[in-house]
Amino acid sequence: MSDRPLLNRRLDGLGTTIFARMTALAAETGAINLGQGFPDTDGPEAVREAAVRALREGRGNQYPPGPGIPELRHAIAEHQQRFHGLRWDPDTEVLVTAGATEALAATLLALLEPGDEVIAFEPYYDSYTAGIAMAGAVRVPLTLRAPDFRPDIDALRAKVTDRTRLLLLNSPHNPTGMVLSRAEAEAIAELAVERDLLVVTDEVYEHLVFDGEHVPFVSLPGMRERTVSISSAGKTFSFTGWKVGWVTAAPALIAAVRTTKQFLTYVSAGPFQYAVAEALRLPEDYFTGLRDDLRAKRDLLSAGLRDAGFTVHPSAGTYFVTTDVASLGEKDGVEFCLALPERCGVVAVPNAVFHDDAEAGRTQVRFAFCKRPDVLSEAVERLGRLSA
Ligand SMILES: *Cc1c(COP(=O)(O)O)cnc(C)c1O
């Protein structure tokens, strides 16, 4: 065989994700895994039972319709109207995907030409860099900087060139917990109109805003025809293994995304689609209960980390809190995280791996708080040994 590398060059640097490495480390050492963002308690029993019923009754066991089952597309549209006042046609403006991950990949593959520039907040959610790379496009980071991780709108404006095709937004933002304010979202929307940019928004934490409000980007003036909104059942219903996500957008955008999506998975998660349709219709108090529960967990972990000597950057949303370990005398978050399981039996993720500008996140470390209170308390106790 030739010595040409097997993995194509577009994907250079996208080897094993940090999560696989850290989860393996957690398993090897028996450490508490606050690295990857998955809840350690399943979502509502009624929703789980709805999936069992669908399986037993033979609903969704064979290929469901390509765009998603009608029950789920209707439920997605109703949910968006109930919580955000948005109206979508379930037949032409809603597309069910294999999680938000496939929605992102299908959208980027559909909308981008090789060489197009995509401006995205960094630290990035890791699949953004992969999706942009697979499309042959060029990522342009807008660095969110500590302590508050607010986007610098003037810096964003300066990054737009004639090659910029798309803004990739994420609010609430993983990993920093930054939630875009209405004024920031409006300023970004104005820029998108002025420079005729497409906008892709990842809103998987739409129900996990602890401080402030979630502004669905597409609700802003001029955004309807240029915005692809992405969400998912994983985070909202604590079933991250089900991989049911969705895209809502104007018909022309949906048609484009459907074109790539049909050849990625075609369809997925048949019986789970029925269960998620029921989940989206849960009463209001489910959604506020989830948020209040996670807010309490955020507070528990944040206070514990502060007591343990970390600088804690307040998180306004998501499953995560970002800390700075410089206050512990540490100089490098990656080294800190690699040693942490051995030192005190906890796994966390260094923000530097989510950056192009590694310097900006050098000493930042992300912890997930979507875990049972007793697990968080135990983790905090272990982390207390660092400064003892
Ligand atoms: C978890 C997560 C996703 C992936 O969602 P799935 O539905 O599991 O594919 C996408 N974006 C962000 C920001 C996430 O945290």
Automatic annotation (TrEMBL):
Q: Annotated Gene Ontology MF terms?
A: kynurenine-oxoglutarate transaminase activity; pyridoxal phosphate binding
What keywords would UniProt list here? Aminotransferase, Pyridoxal phosphate, Transferase
One Gene Ontology term, aspect cellular component: cytoplasm
**Which cofactors are required for activity?**
pyridoxal 5'-phosphate
Task: Classify the source by domain of life.
Answer: Bacteria
As for family, the record states:
Belongs to the class-I pyridoxal-phosphate-dependent aminotransferase family.
Q: What's this protein's name?
A: Pyridoxal phosphate-dependent aminotransferase
Name the species this protein comes from. Answer: Streptomyces lonarensis
